Amino acid sequence: MKTRAIRIHEHGGPEVLRFETVELAEPGPGEARIRHTAIGLNFIDTYHRTGLYPVELPSGLGSEAAGIVEAVGAGVDSIAPGDRVVYTGRPADAYSEQRNFAADRLVPIPDAVSDEQAAAGLLKGLTAWYLLKRSYPVRDGDAILLHAAAGGVGSLASQWARHLGATVIGVVSTEQKAGLARTQGCHHVLMSDHDDLPGAVRELTGGEGVAAVYDSVGRDTFFDSLDALRPHGVMVSFGNASGPVDPFSPAELAKRHSLYVTRPILFDFIDTRERLFAACDEWFEVVGSGAVKICVNQRYPLAEAAQAHRDLEARKTTGSTVLLP
Ligand code: NDP
């Protein structure tokens, strides 16, 4: 059968995205075919597009989506046609009307969660989960620093961190985003062009510095983030929105009083079905209780994915974004 999908045949800017008709095979053993109803936009999609994260060309794009199971392959009994599901994972092919995916990685969507919310929140919500519960497990009373606090991951992580009892200091680039960050859980908000960000963080923490920094900006903020940490603090460097972090000497960590640095990726924390489903239970619990709200602030037709990439990279988006097939 045929379906339509965004494909790239070369790396480059948003202009390399092409909306094409492609052949889709029947689902193989262990697979299910999903008809997408909403597709999550993520910054990682831009890294696949530019080649910062290697993908074999030609390639699809997109790492999370929600939809309806249309057909299942041999040996699949965890899911059935008609089920409403969401998934995150590889291969990156979520920017499509339909696709096949490993059936045992499809997560049923709770009734109270819409398809848009599910697609907008799974990858980002599970990222917030492992950042706050695994990379540096936040404790009641900890002060933490969170970059891009009004963005996709940032909006969810700030709400969840506050729910866990942290004092959340968010960093954003505009006054409009600052307002949003405050309503989404940040106790304090600093502007990203502040000329002394570590100094401002110290002022807010009685001179001590924060227990952990969650830094998705990368190159532009790495050393400011280290300087904002308390002794033995943890730097969680989890993204490259401004470019990858340059190589640095471990002596930089000694100089700043025995710091720790980790560079995690989501898929290492949800590598088995058991770990994936356990994480989803925690995610849908905070969503269900209302502790964390998924804000879908932008919607684009799938065919206009290139414009969505332009806006994401130009820092024009807030919260989550979905592409609609
Ligand atoms: P966001 O919605 O957060 O968008 C990125 C934000 O980063 C922008 O809105 C902007 O916020 C900020 N930013 C700072 N500097 C730049 C820059 N030079 N160019 C563009 N944006 C900049 O995206 P996502 O929620 O999809 O992802 C957030 C980050 O988390 C990304 O870096 C992504 O790679 C990372 N990530 C990592 C994962 C992992 O497991 N390691 C998993 C999921 C996401 P502002 O204008 O307020 O500065």
How does this structure look, described?
The chain is α/β, with parallel strands linked by helices and 325 residues long. The chain folds into two domains: 2-113 and 294-324, Quinone Oxidoreductase, Chain A, domain 1 (Alpha-Beta Complex); 123-266, NAD(P)-binding Rossmann-like Domain (Rossmann fold). Helices cover 29% and strands 27% of the residues. The protein has nine helices and 16 strands. The protein has helices at residues 43-50, 115-135, 152-163, 175-183, 197-204, 222-227, 251-255, 273-289, 305-313, and strands spanning 2-8, 18-23, 31-40, 59-60, 64-72, 84-88, 98-102, 107-108, 143-146, 167-172, 188-191, 210-215, 229-237, 260-262, 296-301, 320-324. Strands 3, 5, 6, 7, 8, 15 and 16 form a seven-stranded mixed sheet that branches. Strands 11-10-9-12-13-14 form a six-stranded parallel sheet, sandwiched between helices. The longest helix has 21 residues, at 115-135. The chain is globular, with a radius of gyration of 20 Å. The structure holds NADPH dihydro-nicotinamide-adenine-dinucleotide phosphate. It catalyses: 2 a quinone + NADPH + H(+) = 2 a 1,4-benzosemiquinone + NADP(+). This is NADPH:quinone reductase. It comes from Elongatibacter sediminis. One of its GO terms (molecular function) is quinone reductase (NADPH) activity. It is an enzyme of class 1 (oxidoreductase).
